[in-house]
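Instructor's aside before we start: the two examples that follow are unrelated to each other. I chose them only because their records fit on one page, so don't look for a connection. First example below.
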Amino acid sequence: MKKISIIIPTLNSSKTIRKSINSVLSQNFKNFEIIVVDSYSIDKTFENIRSFNLKNKVKFFRFPKNRTLADARYFGIKKATGSIIAFLDSDDYWDRRKLYLQYLKLQRNKFCCTGFVYIKNFKKYSISNFPKKILLKNLIVSRPVANSSVVCYRSLLMKIPKKYFSEYAEDYLWWIMILKRINYLYFYNVNLTYLTISQDNRSKNLLKNLKSLFLIYKNVLQFSLFKIIVIFTKLGINNFKKKYFLIRK
């Protein structure tokens, strides 16, 4: 079996990092390494990671201060020794079957994500009703990919120019760049990823996120202003549906 490198960026994640790492260590798939890239946390993140005492499985790197989340992920990708990359945010966690089932899907696909569950105020909401093959046009108007649900071949990520590792919506930009090279993203319609939504969650920074999306559509995809307005309208409708019509678990 090919090795999977799991990239986990951290910043003051002492309250959640143990659950995230434990969800990886409990995977049915065992040929993996965990790469933790910490942006100089001032809490007990490092102590919690060190307590696992798994030198062969967990690699810990201290990253320079004032660097972005995208920089940390890119650094982790560069340090990875596996041919397959998975991402996991430090407050998210996985079903124990996730890596094994996605590894099987990667035998015929280069890029795979799963259904996911939002956890907000201790309540769970399921997101899994997307087509199996997500095309670039689907990704642009619906954003069905949760970063912590993705596995893909490292070679695809290394073909993305460094300038596209931006501060906000960087993972969304990566998926766009990959889908400009391959035909589709395989969506495995099973909820295997659990996302914690908190008040200080990065995706809550709405204005900066919208600005990043606008720049992606304008500068990278070179869409007209009219087309960008249409896309934002569709995104707004889809986000409304996601917010008000989630399936309670």
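Example two begins here.
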Amino acid sequence: MKTWVITGGAASGKSSFCKMLQSLQPEKIAFYSSDETVHALFEESSVKKELVQLFGEMVVNATSGKVDRVALRQRVFNHAEDRKVLENLLHPLAFERLTELRERLSGDGKTQLLIAEIPLFYETGREFPADLVILVAVSPAVQRQRMMEKRGLTSVDVERILDAQLPLASKLELAGRVVWNEGDTDLLLRQAQLILHQVNSPTCTLNPLEPRP
């Protein structure tokens, strides 16, 4: 079984690309999302307890008992040291869940490819044995526009988020493949098909998919 990491900056379209990849051969392609994993971790009592110890009771809603993600985000993006503390808590746990999933899937006899969406793959500096790292990218101008229009963020919030991420130029140098996502969904699908066709090795049972004419 192969493992591909899909990474990229905020609002680049990573999730859409992952869904398209999986839809091409859903019976053979499995999907992992680090964002969904982190959301699940926030529900674990041990993680919530650790968050309170690190950042105070204000990061957990007293009524619902759930992690207040808005309060936590404001705290960590206003304090770089706090952001590192949070990453050091969550990222090892998220990679641990990914490793466990890969071990389970490798023995199921049907999964040929695991695609792992990890937005901060390069930023974490972690060594993970991926067969391929695909960068989904857009220009900085398009990225800022999408973050403000689709996520309702202010320009100040956008810059804080981008400052915490590796510059696009650095990611372009590191990536094994690049998907440029400033076109429509049809173009994104064609790129997904083309990558499956180009990268499949002779020993992989994934059927190559030709891009549509």
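The first helix runs from residue 14 to 24.
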